[in-house]
Specification:
This protein is of the alpha+beta class and 342 residues long. The chain contains twelve helices and nine strands. Helix content is 54%, strand content 19%. The longest helix has 34 residues.
Length: 342
């Protein structure tokens, strides 16, 4: 229903623009009382504004409303003539940019005197276009900015006005994840939307979660056992690697080589590769266990002994840097936090 309303008034709009675009001096001839006078304006800028006005009228006649808006906007920048502003409002209206058309028509009313002959027509158009808008009341748990179809439309909590049809409404707030809703709304109605924004997960939030938890600590025997297994694995890998190299050299040095000897040499190589991977994994595990180990917990001196010790070892133990780690469960895995504590 909204497009039909706009189409009914286009013939009058189009005829007016075409009549004004017939000559280079059309905007000057169309001036009414209160239009911007020629005095104090750059003649070159006015000449260019007239050309762009005529081009915008031609684009409007071809229903290329976006191009008409661009030309008329530039024309008004060069020459603040209310006639150009009136034509720009008509171009917005033809492009179905209802709110922009209303704002432009209102600017026209604000820049023309009460005696202007087009005021009644403009006021009628504003009333007609207001009837094509709907009101959306938006409530959020945090102040933010509202975007309609990707264009900024206001702030929230508050209300915005949108033309009838289907729209994507998005709310963005600093420190929160953006939330979107898609709705179809009819002209003259009022809709209420409530957005519950969720805070973004940041490094600060992770630290805040872990502040109240005691770091994971392992006793020294766990590290010693892991280190021992790792050393044994490294030794086994060295032995298997040496054997694999020796068997490969023996196989390559033989003038006559059998399939059995070739398979045996390759088997030793595979054993050495598997053991190398196992030793590497154990080495990484030993490093993590070392960071989780409570190195100074068992040998920490009592307060009296620390105060009475004259060689300064107690103070060194209190201020020395020790590794610290913590494991924070996350969705789909875990987060390992590593660092040094003094």
């Amino acid at each position: 229903m909204a497009p039909m309303r706009i189409l009914r008034i286009r013939p009058l709009v189009l005829s007016l623009l075409v009549a004004q675009a017939l000559g280079a001096s059309a905007p000057a001839r169309a001036q009414t009382e209160g239009d911007a006078p020629l005095e104090g304006h750059d003649e070159a800028a006015i000449a260019e504004a007239r050309e762009r006005y005529a081009q915008g009228a031609e684009f409007f006649r071809r229903e290329r409303y976006s191009a008409a808006i661009a030309e008329l906007t530039e024309a008004y920048r060069l020459w603040q003539n209310p006639t150009i502003l009136f034509a720009l409002g008509q171009a917005y209206e033809g492009d179905a940019q209802v709110q922009a058309a209303i704002d432009t028509y209102q600017r026209y009313l604000d820049t023309t005197p009460e005696t202007d002959g087009r005021r009644a027509d403009v006021e009628s158009r504003i009333r007609l276009l207001n009837g094509l808008l709907a009101t959306v009341q938006i409530q959020t748990n945090a102040p933010g900015t509202v975007f309609v179809n990707g264009q900024e439309a206001g702030t929230t909590p508050g209300s915005i006005r949108v033309p009838t049809g289907r729209h994507q409404i998005e709310v963005r707030a600093e420190g929160y994840r953006p939330e979107r809703r898609t709705l179809t709304i009819a002209a003259g109605t009022e809709t209420q939307l409530t957005f519950t924004l969720r805070e973004e997960e940041t490094r600060t939030e992770i630290i805040r979660v872990t502040e109240g938890r005691a770091p994971i600590r392992l006793p020294r025997p766990v590290f010693l056992a892991t280190a021992g297994v790792t050393v044994a694995a490294v030794g086994a890998w060295a032995g298997l690697g040496g054997t694999a190299v020796r068997r490969a050299n023996q196989y390559n040095a033989q003038p006559v080589r059998s399939d059995t000897e070739r398979r045996e040499a390759r088997a030793w190589g595979r054993r050495a590769d598997v053991m190398m991977g196992l030793a590497g994994g154990l080495a990484i595990g030993t490093l993590v266990v070392g960071l989780l180990t409570d190195w100074d917990g068992e040998d920490e001196p009592a307060s009296g002994a620390a105060e009475g010790d004259g060689d300064g070892d107690g103070a060194a133990g209190a201020t020395g840097a020790t590794p610290e780690a913590n494991v924070l469960p996350q969705r789909g895995g875990a987060l390992l936090l590593l660092g040094w504590r003094r």
